[in-house]
Amino acid sequence: MENKLFGLSIAVAIAIMIGVIFVSIIADETSQRTLKLTSYGEGIALVNPNATLVNETAVYTVTNAPTGWEIQDCPLTSVAITNKTGSALTPTTDYIFDASAGTFTLVGTDKTKALVPVDNKTYVTYTYCGKDYVSGWAGTVTNMVPGFFALALLLVAAMVLYFVLREKDIL
Question: Considering the entire predicted model, what is its pTM?
Answer without folding.
Answer: 0.70
